[in-house]
Specification:
Blueprint lengths: L15 H6 L22 E5 L3 H10 L37 H11 L9 E4 L2 E4 L13 H21 L2 E6 L3 E5 L5 E2 L15 E5 L2 H18 L7 E6 L13 H22 L3 E3 L2 H6 L17 H14 L8 H4 L36
Parallel strand pairs: 1-4, 4-8, 8-9
Antiparallel strand pairs: 2-3, 5-6, 5-7
Helix pairs in contact: 3-4, 3-5, 5-6
């Protein structure tokens, strides 16, 4: 008797025509199946590259308990929150573009590593080199920077100790590193503050094995530092936002493809290896050919509101949230806060403007 083909009983999602061509990009079907449920009352920590700001904002609007260990001062107008690094993530750490950057923050928080360079200067003002954008006008002295950082790191430690779900958006493989200490910065020295020197800093393009090892080290540090029993789950995404510029020597399109491919591979490997790590395919929803480019703005880099909404609606539905009308009915219209949104959601969070240091590299286009 002729053996039955192993493809004969596969579901529609296993085939390109039925899984992609016949599907609407506005409502992806069977693309994401959660590994574990994230309840609204779970203490969620959100961090990562610029696209992670969308995730944090939408979760808050839909009533999820996104932790904020460094809320904005009451006197600061809501429209200035993002300018000073507030209301973006679960802490005032700004964008965390690379896995090494996140690992080093956790190591600093738990006292296993100290950064090699903390203070940058510009025009007589002083900046935290590890989050230079959160004080756009700088501070009055190096001592003040160190006091602010000590407070920040203490809050980050509390955040890691009490989180139940950690959502991290992998953004870049490229980074600038302090040669003597290995400290990774969120942006090239000299762009926001500091002064670039090839003697002091070097370019790194992290590889698969390095990023995988960094996340495993981060996961182990978090798990081993928490009192028992305090389980924590991790959710990974990959930013669909292309590189603004590359120092790799490759064309920026090839560099973007390399970076996102490596990050997607790392996320997939981690989700495959660990029951407490899930992967959400926001990258695939927005960047794949089935969307025909409709989820990007005219600059072919910024993710359009429609793309963000489709991705987040897909995520929310899988986690049991009734998001109302189907994306088809709402595509093209800005998302309004849901009934579950609280008064704590600021005007800054309702803005579609993202804080992204990498965009400043556009200034060097000739």
């Amino acid at each position: 008797m002729k053996a039955r083909s192993p493809y004969a009983d596969l579901p529609g999602k296993a085939f390109w025509r039925t899984g992609v061509v016949d599907q609407s990009p506005l409502r992806p079907k069977d693309l994401y199946t959660r590994k574990f449920r994230i309840d609204k009352d779970a203490r969620i920590v959100a961090a990562g590259s610029c696209f992670a700001q969308h995730i944090s904002r939408h979760l808050k609007r839909n009533g999820f308990a996104v932790v904020d260990v460094e809320p904005a001062p009451e006197h600061l107008p809501a429209e200035l929150h993002h300018r000073y690094g507030y209301s973006m993530y679960s802490g005032r750490f700004g964008n965390i573009y690379t896995m090494r950057q996140l690992l080093q923050l956790a190591q600093e928080a738990f006292g296993t590593r100290a950064p090699g360079e903390v203070v940058w200067t510009k025009g007589g003002a002083y900046y935290d080199a590890l989050r230079p954008s959160v004080e756009p006008d700088g501070l009055a002295s190096a001592e003040e920077v160190l006091i602010h950082r000590k407070h920040h790191v203490r809050k980050v430690r509390d955040m890691f100790l009490n989180a139940e779900v950690m959502i991290f958006t992998l953004g870049l493989t490229e980074a600038w590193v302090h040669k003597d200490s290995g400290t990774v910065f969120p942006t090239v020295p000299g762009l926001i503050a500091g002064e670039f020197s090839s003697d002091a800093y070097e370019f790194r393009n992290f590889e698969f094995a390095e990023i995988l090892a960094d996340f495993n080290a981060f996961r182990e540090l978090i798990r081993s530092s928490r009192p028992e029993p305090k389980p924590v789950n991790f959710l990974l995404t990959v930013s669909p936002v292309p590189l603004t510029a590359t120092n790799s020597g490759d064309h920026v399109l090839s560099a973007t493809t390399y970076s996102k491919s490596v990050l997607r591979s790392v996320a997939g490997q981690l989700a495959k290896n660990h029951a407490d790590i899930d992967y959400f395919p926001s990258f695939e929803i927005i960047n794949n050919c089935w969307s025909r480019g409709i989820f990007y703005e005219n600059n072919m880099r910024s993710v359009a509101a429609e793309g963000v909404e489709v991705a987040m609606t897909t995520f929310l539905r899988e986690h049991g949230v009734d998001v109302g009308a189907a994306p088809e009915a709402r595509a093209g219209a800005p998302q309004a806060p849901t009934a579950a949104a609280t008064e704590a959601i600021s005007a800054a969070e309702q803005s579609d403007d993202l804080v992204c240091e990498e965009l400043l590299l556009e200034a060097f286009v000739k």
